[in-house]
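We store sequence, tokenised fold; for instance:
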Amino acid sequence: WLSMGLILFKSLADMLFLTSVLSYVKRSDLLFLVPLVQPIYLLYVLWAGPAGLRGTYNWKGRIVKPVKAKA
């Protein structure tokens, strides 16, 4: 139940933040998409976090290598 509560809390915080942002840019009509995109965003974060820790990649012209944990 704790994880469901945390997901609900995060979704409500996102909704509050995006309500003000979308209102500012006069695109409040897109607010209905927020609940639809939340599950996709969760999957993206679960993939992107570990993916960023593997291998090397190029970022702004620099080669970035993962940091090895010290024992």
In short: The longest strand covers residues 57-59. The radius of gyration is 17 Å.
